[in-house]
Amino acid sequence: MTYLKLLVVLCISQFMVLSVGAQTSTDYPRDKKTIDEGKALFLQNCSSCHNFTQRGIGPNLAGVTNQVSKPWLVHFIRNSQEVIEDGDVRAKKLFEEYKVPMPSFNAFSDDEIVSILAYVNTFQTKAETVSTKEFGPVLSDPIPGKIKKAGLTLELEEVTTASPSADKIPLARINQMGVLPGKKERTFIEDLRGKLYELKGKQLSEVMDISKQRPAFISSHGHATGFGSYAFHPTFKKTGLFYTTHTERPRSAPADFSYANSIPVAHQWVLTEWKINNPRSGTFAGESRELWRIDMPTQIHGVQEITFNPLSKSKDLDYGLLYIGIGDGGSAENGFAFLCNTNTQIWSSVMRIDPLGNNSKNGKYGIPSINPFSNDSDEKTLVEIFARGFRNPNRMSWTADGKMLISDIGLNNIEELNMGRAGVDYGWPAREGTFLLNYRGKMNKVYALPADESNFNFVPPVAQYDHDEGNAISAGYAYEGNIGLLKNKYIFGDIVSGRVFYVNTNELELGKQATILEFDLSFNGVPSTFRKITANSKTDLRFGLGANKQYYLFTKTDGKIWKVIGSK
């Protein structure tokens, strides 16, 4: 019920702000029992998209119960499509604004709907408490220029469809593809709901199911909750060492990275090392140990990709060092910016650790001596940090010439591709792309950078686009296959719209923003788009690299996996 419940509250909030016939907030129960039940439902199912201080994936909900009628809300929840098809102007306008669909939904009982609204009713609109005069005028269109078509078509061929792990969209939460290198390379892909598959030709074979091995495992609620990522140690074929991340229920065990009890814990992310008994086997089984555990204040922006630098050789300084992307956990937009704008906290950073070492605070992993803050004089500095200043460092990859690229999914305005550098601060929550953000107030607007921007030492992205073009960057890879027209192109896209872009890798330079161009797409020889192919406004597009540099695209919405076979 998670995805639909999220969309329910999203669409409630989208339309109640602008609807007519509003009644007073006395329409809703005020007893503690009902409000507590509503709070539990909201936190479990809705807080990934909404809070009561900021506009996020969905609107800020504070004060909405004073601005819309209760009967209208219940009607919309019960049959949203009917309201839209009846020509509700406000519904259509706000769907266009947020670009997130909501199917008709009947899973909530009447009492559950009332309890959610009773909880929402406890939050009323507050005036902006931080002056924005010093920031100058709001930039309503941060990047006026539009992404142009490149005149190139990316030719895709259907490979297979992942087995559904749910009976509702997204059908298969296929999330990350990875390659086990060697003379005979193996391609793997994981489903956030717990399973790891090996792709053999056009078949997916189950290799491992984390959900069965971790009793506290959860794969809801939240857009990236579950089996988040995996990485093979460079010595995997000899040692069987394999790393995974997954989510567990809040307070399942003491966390290594936490915060004050006054801040909620939505769930925990866990980093695990596995020692697989037979690395060549078609199924993975073996012993495991926990390396660390981290609390998250909301279900969003948790631990993202984990990876080893694929270019490193055994004599290189970062050989065998694990890079770990950690989002802000929704802290900035929920009023806890102090968790994500300092080197004394781990949120909003990329960590780099030696999983075979033991000089960390908990003694379960190592701190590389080459880490930028390993000799910092402040004892509160977290020496695990490689770089910081990310909202949601979703993916990391390297180009053939050694450029480390880190994508960062934005809030309301800008999507980023950053060049990874040790010790660098990329600006979040004070910056979004090459723009100023008021993280102490409302974060739905951006402003021009101040005249003294160089004094802050923030590093801007090497490519960016605004929300006229899409909603959330889906990072990719620099193409290294045999298709001549695609060489030296970093191919990526937008999660929601399914548009596919590229930048030329030779244009990726610190201090500059590369030109983004868009591919046309062909599916099994027929021109189309991912929105048409998935028959959904949210495509949930992802990119992957398989064996022998084969480039893949896949969509959670329908579970289909496509491979790139050409370009013209």
Structure, described:
The protein is of the alpha+beta class and 568 residues long. 13% of the residues lie in helices and 29% in strands. The strands form six sheets. Strands 1, 21, 22, 23, 24, 25, 26, 27 and 28 form a nine-stranded mixed β-sheet that branches. The chain has a four-stranded antiparallel β-sheet with strand order 2-3-4-5, with no helix packed on it. A four-stranded antiparallel β-sheet has the order 6-7-8-9. Strand 17 and strand 18 form a beta hairpin. The radius of gyration is 23 Å and the shape is globular. The two termini are 42 Å apart.
Note the topology.
Elements: H1 2-16, H2 32-45, H3 70-78, H4 80-85, H5 89-98, H6 110-120, E1 148-161, E2 174-180, E3 186-191, E4 195-200, E5 203-209, E6 227-232, H7 236-239, E7 241-248, E8 267-276, E9 286-296, E10 303-308, E11 322-326, E12 349-353, E13 385-388, E14 396-398, E15 404-408, E16 414-419, E17 431-432, E18 435-437, E19 446-447, E20 463-466, E21 473-478, E22 489-494, E23 500-504, E24 517-523, E25 526-528, H8 530-534, E26 541-545, E27 551-555, E28 560-567
Parallel strand pairs: 1-24
Antiparallel strand pairs: 1-28, 2-3, 3-4, 4-5, 6-7, 7-8, 8-9, 10-11, 11-12, 12-13, 14-15, 15-16, 16-20, 17-18, 18-19, 21-22, 22-23, 23-24, 24-25, 26-27, 27-28
Helix pairs in contact: 1-3, 2-6
